[in-house]
Amino acid sequence: MPQIITFLGKGGSGRTTVAIAAAKQQANLGRRVLFVSQDPTPATGILLGVPLTDKPQSIGANLEVVLISATAAIERGWEDIKQVEARYLRSPILRNVYGQELAIIPGMDSAIALNALRQYDASGKYDTIVYDGTGDITTLRMAGMSDSLSWYLRRFVAVVEESDLWKTVSPIMQPAMAAILAIAWTGESVASPPLQEANNALAVSQTVISNPQRVVGYLVTTEEPAAVATAKYLWGSAQQSGLTIGGIIFNQGANDPVVGLEFAPLAMTAIPTRIGNDWQPLLDAMPDFSQAIDAPKPIAIDIPKREVRLYLPGFDKTQVKLTQSGPEVTIEAGDQRRNILLPPPLKGSSVTGAKFQSGYLIISF
Length: 365
Description:
- It is a single chain.
- The strands form three sheets. The chain has an eight-stranded mixed sheet, sandwiched between helices.
- Helix 4 (108-122) packs across helix 5 (137-143) and helix 5 (137-143) packs parallel to helix 9 (225-241).
- The model has no long low-confidence stretch (mean pLDDT 82).
- The protein contains eleven helices and 15 strands.
- The protein has 365 residues and is of the alpha/beta class.
- The chain has two domains: 3-73 and 101-148 and 205-292, 3-Layer(aba) Sandwich (Rossmann fold); 299-364, Immunoglobulin-like (Sandwich).
């Protein structure tokens, strides 16, 4: 299975240059590489030396490039949605709505990008996928999308099933739904096959995102204080999304020990300034992306100790909020929330204590 590598950092820190260098380095190592851009402007194409299209195209040995086009993807995706609807409804209601008519609404780009990456990942054509996205909190929300959607399915299905309305109508739902849906549904649960299939798919996506051998992010910064501060913020926010940060790349300069201390224990790699079209010095300086498995994990659950440890670098205890208003524990840090689904031995347990120590939030049950 391929490894997906993405880069996070302040705009202007050189994320796209670093991403291209990483793709070229991986291709030189003999890995089959797909460079995925989400930038519709000509800028990335100029750096690559070829205009990008929404179809993968080869630009060298082992290296293909592609642009995620939201308008093209929504047309293809809409047809897939129609097919899913047709599986469950005997009289589909979306057949007269066409993908060419659909406008792109906020948030849709992230869903389209996530789906495109999933498809390229499952194609079996690539060993490495380098994703050059927005590189900011939007990318991290995309990484955490599967976990967020899974929470909505779990919680709202549970709320509906516990409601008096559901208990009243459920005895008559089976014959009614059997007449409408082209499936055998017992009516005992609102978690019907379509929802169950969706939840299973989301669970698989969560497992992939949390595995640094499959998906990993790298921080990119320069010596500019704002770039360093942004990278630190994105580091902690990435942990909330379940995305492992494998290291930090210091762009356009030599290793700065002061900056290195800001990101300990991450390994820092310095890369030189690109001169003209000479990429080789950057390729030679790239880190070993296979070593990301040694980076601190976003979350660890110790059942014997009845503890959950979350690594939240870049935040202090005044910026972290812990709540338990339902069966799950919610952590708020920065502008993101993470809902932790506890394993069976801890499920239903109340929080007995919490402390913030050396970047870790340690929760006891």
